[in-house]
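Z., the sequence and structure:
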Amino acid sequence: MNKRVFVLPGEMAVSRQPSEIATLLGSCVAVCLYNKKINAGGLNHYMLPTGEKEEMKGKYGDYAIGKLIEMMRRLDPNLRNVEAHMYGGAAVVGHLNTGAGIGKKNVEMADTMLKKYGIRVIRREVGGENGRKLYFNSKTGEVQVRLIERSELTKQIVEKKQALANRKIRVMVVDDSSTVRQIIKKALELDAGIEVVGDAEDAYEARQMIMELDPDVLTLDIIMPKMDGLTFLKKLMLHFPKPIIIVSTIARDGSKQKMRAEDMGAVNVIDKAELKLYEGLEKASSVLIKAVRSASVMMVKKRSADEIGHI
Protein backbone atom coordinates (compact mmCIF):
# COMPACT_ATOMS: atom_id res chain seq x y z
CA MET A 1 0.00 0.00 0.00
CA ASN A 2 1.79 3.16 -1.16
CA LYS A 3 -0.92 5.80 -1.06
CA ARG A 4 -3.36 6.99 1.62
CA VAL A 5 -6.32 9.29 1.05
CA PHE A 6 -8.78 10.70 3.58
CA VAL A 7 -12.18 11.68 2.17
CA LEU A 8 -14.09 14.53 3.83
CA PRO A 9 -17.87 15.16 3.55
CA GLY A 10 -18.69 16.14 -0.04
CA GLU A 11 -15.55 14.52 -1.43
CA MET A 12 -14.84 11.27 -3.28
CA ALA A 13 -11.76 9.40 -4.47
CA VAL A 14 -11.09 6.71 -7.08
CA SER A 15 -7.73 5.02 -7.53
CA ARG A 16 -6.31 2.49 -9.94
CA GLN A 17 -3.15 2.33 -7.87
CA PRO A 18 -3.07 0.40 -4.57
CA SER A 19 -4.46 2.87 -2.06
CA GLU A 20 -6.10 3.06 1.33
CA ILE A 21 -9.08 5.41 1.15
CA ALA A 22 -10.48 6.34 4.56
CA THR A 23 -13.39 8.35 5.87
CA LEU A 24 -15.38 8.99 9.06
CA LEU A 25 -19.18 8.58 9.08
CA GLY A 26 -22.13 9.33 11.33
CA SER A 27 -25.49 9.91 9.68
CA CYS A 28 -23.62 10.43 6.40
CA VAL A 29 -23.25 7.54 3.94
CA ALA A 30 -20.27 6.25 1.98
CA VAL A 31 -20.72 4.11 -1.12
CA CYS A 32 -17.65 2.04 -2.02
CA LEU A 33 -17.39 0.79 -5.62
CA TYR A 34 -14.93 -1.92 -6.61
CA ASN A 35 -14.16 -3.23 -10.12
CA LYS A 36 -13.16 -6.85 -9.64
CA LYS A 37 -11.81 -7.16 -13.20
CA ILE A 38 -9.24 -4.35 -13.05
CA ASN A 39 -8.81 -4.35 -9.23
CA ALA A 40 -9.58 -0.68 -8.74
CA GLY A 41 -12.13 1.25 -6.75
CA GLY A 42 -13.20 4.32 -4.86
CA LEU A 43 -15.68 5.78 -2.42
CA ASN A 44 -17.69 8.90 -1.74
CA HIS A 45 -18.99 10.59 1.42
CA TYR A 46 -22.27 12.47 1.26
CA MET A 47 -24.33 14.22 3.94
CA LEU A 48 -27.81 14.61 2.48
CA PRO A 49 -29.87 12.56 0.01
CA THR A 50 -30.51 15.42 -2.41
CA GLY A 51 -30.38 19.20 -2.70
CA GLU A 52 -30.08 22.19 -4.99
CA LYS A 53 -27.11 24.27 -3.79
CA GLU A 54 -24.48 24.14 -6.51
CA GLU A 55 -21.61 24.78 -4.11
CA MET A 56 -22.69 21.75 -2.03
CA LYS A 57 -23.41 19.25 -4.80
CA GLY A 58 -20.74 16.81 -3.64
CA LYS A 59 -22.58 16.55 -0.33
CA TYR A 60 -25.79 15.31 -1.99
CA GLY A 61 -26.23 11.57 -2.49
CA ASP A 62 -27.85 11.64 -5.93
CA TYR A 63 -24.95 13.66 -7.34
CA ALA A 64 -22.18 11.98 -5.34
CA ILE A 65 -23.18 8.44 -6.35
CA GLY A 66 -23.74 9.37 -9.98
CA LYS A 67 -20.36 11.10 -10.10
CA LEU A 68 -18.58 8.16 -8.46
CA ILE A 69 -20.08 5.81 -11.02
CA GLU A 70 -18.97 8.14 -13.82
CA MET A 71 -15.40 8.09 -12.47
CA MET A 72 -15.43 4.29 -12.30
CA ARG A 73 -16.68 4.10 -15.90
CA ARG A 74 -13.63 6.03 -17.04
CA LEU A 75 -11.54 3.11 -15.81
CA ASP A 76 -13.85 0.47 -17.28
CA PRO A 77 -17.19 1.30 -18.98
CA ASN A 78 -18.69 -2.11 -18.12
CA LEU A 79 -20.60 -1.73 -14.82
CA ARG A 80 -21.16 -5.48 -14.66
CA ASN A 81 -17.64 -5.69 -13.28
CA VAL A 82 -18.51 -3.33 -10.43
CA GLU A 83 -19.84 -4.27 -7.01
CA ALA A 84 -20.80 -1.98 -4.13
CA HIS A 85 -20.48 -1.67 -0.39
CA MET A 86 -22.60 0.75 1.66
CA TYR A 87 -21.84 2.19 5.10
CA GLY A 88 -23.14 4.82 7.52
CA GLY A 89 -26.59 6.28 8.00
CA ALA A 90 -26.46 5.98 11.78
CA ALA A 91 -28.78 7.76 14.21
CA VAL A 92 -26.00 9.52 16.08
CA VAL A 93 -25.81 12.76 18.05
CA GLY A 94 -23.17 15.44 18.03
CA HIS A 95 -20.98 16.66 15.15
CA LEU A 96 -21.43 13.43 13.13
CA ASN A 97 -25.17 13.99 12.83
CA THR A 98 -26.65 16.04 9.97
CA GLY A 99 -30.29 16.04 11.08
CA ALA A 100 -33.18 13.96 12.38
CA GLY A 101 -33.93 10.96 10.16
CA ILE A 102 -31.29 11.93 7.60
CA GLY A 103 -29.29 8.71 8.03
CA LYS A 104 -32.19 6.55 6.88
CA LYS A 105 -32.90 8.84 3.91
CA ASN A 106 -29.22 8.75 2.91
CA VAL A 107 -29.32 4.94 2.86
CA GLU A 108 -32.51 4.96 0.79
CA MET A 109 -30.85 7.24 -1.77
CA ALA A 110 -27.90 4.84 -2.09
CA ASP A 111 -30.28 1.92 -2.66
CA THR A 112 -32.20 3.88 -5.29
CA MET A 113 -29.12 5.02 -7.22
CA LEU A 114 -27.34 1.66 -7.19
CA LYS A 115 -30.50 -0.11 -8.33
CA LYS A 116 -30.87 2.42 -11.15
CA TYR A 117 -27.40 1.56 -12.47
CA GLY A 118 -27.78 -2.17 -11.84
CA ILE A 119 -24.89 -2.37 -9.39
CA ARG A 120 -25.09 -5.18 -6.86
CA VAL A 121 -24.54 -4.40 -3.17
CA ILE A 122 -22.47 -7.19 -1.64
CA ARG A 123 -22.05 -5.68 1.82
CA ARG A 124 -23.99 -3.11 3.81
CA GLU A 125 -23.46 -1.90 7.35
CA VAL A 126 -25.94 0.89 7.91
CA GLY A 127 -28.05 2.37 10.68
CA GLY A 128 -27.43 1.82 14.37
CA GLU A 129 -26.36 4.50 16.82
CA ASN A 130 -22.58 4.56 16.37
CA GLY A 131 -20.38 6.38 13.93
CA ARG A 132 -17.95 4.42 11.76
CA LYS A 133 -14.39 4.72 10.52
CA LEU A 134 -13.80 3.13 7.10
CA TYR A 135 -10.59 1.94 5.49
CA PHE A 136 -11.11 0.88 1.86
CA ASN A 137 -8.38 -1.02 -0.01
CA SER A 138 -8.76 0.03 -3.65
CA LYS A 139 -6.62 -2.91 -4.85
CA THR A 140 -8.53 -5.73 -3.14
CA GLY A 141 -11.92 -4.15 -2.49
CA GLU A 142 -11.68 -5.02 1.21
CA VAL A 143 -13.17 -2.60 3.72
CA GLN A 144 -12.27 -2.45 7.41
CA VAL A 145 -14.92 -0.90 9.63
CA ARG A 146 -14.37 0.36 13.16
CA LEU A 147 -17.28 1.54 15.27
CA ILE A 148 -16.84 4.82 17.11
CA GLU A 149 -17.75 4.38 20.76
CA ARG A 150 -20.04 6.93 22.35
CA SER A 151 -18.51 9.37 24.79
CA GLU A 152 -20.09 9.97 28.19
CA LEU A 153 -21.30 13.35 26.96
CA THR A 154 -22.98 11.73 23.95
CA LYS A 155 -24.75 9.26 26.24
CA GLN A 156 -26.02 12.13 28.40
CA ILE A 157 -27.36 13.95 25.34
CA VAL A 158 -29.13 10.80 24.18
CA GLU A 159 -30.74 10.38 27.61
CA LYS A 160 -31.82 14.02 27.58
CA LYS A 161 -33.37 13.65 24.11
CA GLN A 162 -35.24 10.55 25.22
CA ALA A 163 -36.62 12.35 28.27
CA LEU A 164 -37.79 15.32 26.19
CA ALA A 165 -39.42 13.03 23.65
CA ASN A 166 -42.07 12.16 26.24
CA ARG A 167 -43.01 15.73 27.19
CA LYS A 168 -42.96 19.35 26.01
CA ILE A 169 -39.84 21.50 26.14
CA ARG A 170 -40.29 23.94 29.03
CA VAL A 171 -39.19 27.50 28.23
CA MET A 172 -38.98 30.64 30.32
CA VAL A 173 -38.86 34.11 28.71
CA VAL A 174 -37.00 36.94 30.44
CA ASP A 175 -37.46 40.43 28.93
CA ASP A 176 -38.43 43.79 30.41
CA SER A 177 -41.03 44.38 27.67
CA SER A 178 -44.36 42.64 28.31
CA THR A 179 -45.18 42.98 24.59
CA VAL A 180 -41.98 41.23 23.55
CA ARG A 181 -42.55 38.49 26.12
CA GLN A 182 -46.01 37.80 24.73
CA ILE A 183 -44.79 37.76 21.12
CA ILE A 184 -41.99 35.32 21.95
CA LYS A 185 -44.45 33.15 23.89
CA LYS A 186 -46.91 33.02 20.98
CA ALA A 187 -44.12 32.40 18.46
CA LEU A 188 -42.72 29.47 20.45
CA GLU A 189 -46.06 27.87 21.23
CA LEU A 190 -46.82 27.53 17.52
CA ASP A 191 -44.76 24.37 18.06
CA ALA A 192 -46.96 21.89 19.92
CA GLY A 193 -43.87 20.42 21.54
CA ILE A 194 -42.89 23.65 23.30
CA GLU A 195 -44.52 25.22 26.36
CA VAL A 196 -43.65 28.63 27.83
CA VAL A 197 -43.99 27.90 31.54
CA GLY A 198 -43.23 31.41 32.75
CA ASP A 199 -42.04 34.91 31.87
CA ALA A 200 -40.25 37.53 33.91
CA GLU A 201 -39.47 41.23 33.45
CA ASP A 202 -36.17 41.31 35.35
CA ALA A 203 -33.45 39.05 36.75
CA TYR A 204 -34.76 39.08 40.31
CA GLU A 205 -38.21 37.89 39.28
CA ALA A 206 -36.62 35.37 36.93
CA ARG A 207 -34.34 33.95 39.64
CA GLN A 208 -37.27 32.95 41.83
CA MET A 209 -39.26 31.53 38.94
CA ILE A 210 -36.32 29.45 37.69
CA MET A 211 -36.07 27.76 41.08
CA GLU A 212 -39.82 27.05 41.13
CA LEU A 213 -40.40 26.08 37.48
CA ASP A 214 -37.05 24.47 36.51
CA PRO A 215 -37.33 25.31 32.76
CA ASP A 216 -35.31 23.43 30.15
CA VAL A 217 -34.35 26.60 28.24
CA LEU A 218 -34.30 30.35 28.93
CA THR A 219 -34.51 33.23 26.48
CA LEU A 220 -32.83 36.26 28.02
CA ASP A 221 -32.68 39.94 27.07
CA ILE A 222 -29.59 42.03 27.89
CA ILE A 223 -30.99 45.52 28.52
CA MET A 224 -33.14 45.15 31.65
CA PRO A 225 -33.72 47.12 34.87
CA LYS A 226 -32.09 46.23 38.22
CA MET A 227 -29.63 43.76 36.64
CA ASP A 228 -28.56 43.48 33.00
CA GLY A 229 -28.84 40.17 31.19
CA LEU A 230 -25.11 39.51 30.89
CA THR A 231 -24.60 39.90 34.65
CA PHE A 232 -27.52 37.54 35.24
CA LEU A 233 -26.13 35.07 32.69
CA LYS A 234 -22.84 35.09 34.57
CA LYS A 235 -24.55 34.36 37.89
CA LEU A 236 -26.59 31.54 36.38
CA MET A 237 -23.53 29.87 34.88
CA LEU A 238 -21.80 30.02 38.26
CA HIS A 239 -24.68 28.70 40.36
CA PHE A 240 -27.58 27.28 38.31
CA PRO A 241 -26.54 26.64 34.68
CA LYS A 242 -29.21 26.27 32.01
CA PRO A 243 -29.23 26.39 28.20
CA ILE A 244 -29.66 30.14 27.68
CA ILE A 245 -30.49 31.91 24.43
CA ILE A 246 -29.71 35.63 24.45
CA VAL A 247 -32.34 37.61 22.52
CA SER A 248 -31.29 41.25 22.38
CA THR A 249 -31.14 44.35 20.18
CA ILE A 250 -27.49 44.95 21.12
CA ALA A 251 -26.16 41.43 20.51
CA ARG A 252 -25.45 41.85 16.81
CA ASP A 253 -22.84 39.84 14.93
CA GLY A 254 -19.38 41.06 15.86
CA SER A 255 -20.56 43.03 18.90
CA LYS A 256 -18.77 42.86 22.24
CA GLN A 257 -22.02 41.86 23.90
CA LYS A 258 -22.45 38.83 21.66
CA MET A 259 -18.86 37.71 22.21
CA ARG A 260 -19.18 38.14 25.99
CA ALA A 261 -22.43 36.18 26.07
CA GLU A 262 -20.90 33.31 24.10
CA ASP A 263 -17.77 33.32 26.27
CA MET A 264 -19.86 33.12 29.41
CA GLY A 265 -21.82 30.13 28.14
CA ALA A 266 -24.90 31.27 26.20
CA VAL A 267 -25.79 28.46 23.78
CA ASN A 268 -27.12 30.90 21.18
CA VAL A 269 -27.27 34.67 20.64
CA ILE A 270 -30.06 36.13 18.51
CA ASP A 271 -30.36 39.73 17.32
CA LYS A 272 -33.96 40.85 17.95
CA ALA A 273 -33.95 42.61 14.58
CA GLU A 274 -33.65 39.19 12.93
CA LEU A 275 -36.97 38.14 14.46
CA LYS A 276 -39.05 40.97 12.94
CA LEU A 277 -41.16 40.87 16.11
CA TYR A 278 -43.71 43.46 15.01
CA GLU A 279 -44.29 42.00 11.54
CA GLY A 280 -46.16 38.86 12.52
CA LEU A 281 -45.08 35.56 14.05
CA GLU A 282 -43.75 33.70 11.00
CA LYS A 283 -40.13 34.87 11.11
CA ALA A 284 -39.88 34.91 14.91
CA SER A 285 -41.29 31.41 15.24
CA SER A 286 -39.02 29.91 12.58
CA VAL A 287 -35.89 31.28 14.27
CA LEU A 288 -36.89 30.80 17.91
CA ILE A 289 -38.35 27.31 17.62
CA LYS A 290 -35.21 26.03 15.90
CA ALA A 291 -33.02 27.70 18.53
CA VAL A 292 -35.03 26.33 21.47
CA ARG A 293 -35.15 22.77 20.12
CA SER A 294 -31.39 22.82 19.60
CA ALA A 295 -30.71 24.36 23.02
CA SER A 296 -32.98 21.90 24.84
CA VAL A 297 -30.64 18.94 24.24
CA MET A 298 -27.40 20.76 25.02
CA MET A 299 -25.45 19.86 28.13
CA VAL A 300 -24.49 23.01 30.04
CA LYS A 301 -21.90 22.73 32.77
CA LYS A 302 -21.45 24.92 35.82
CA ARG A 303 -18.57 27.38 35.43
CA SER A 304 -16.05 28.16 38.15
CA ALA A 305 -15.32 31.68 39.36
CA ASP A 306 -11.84 31.41 37.83
CA GLU A 307 -13.22 30.37 34.45
CA ILE A 308 -15.71 33.18 34.23
CA GLY A 309 -14.08 35.85 36.39
CA HIS A 310 -12.10 37.58 33.64
CA ILE A 311 -15.04 37.90 31.22
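The radius of gyration is 24 Å. The CA atoms of residues 151 and 157 lie 10 Å apart.

Let me know what you think.
H.
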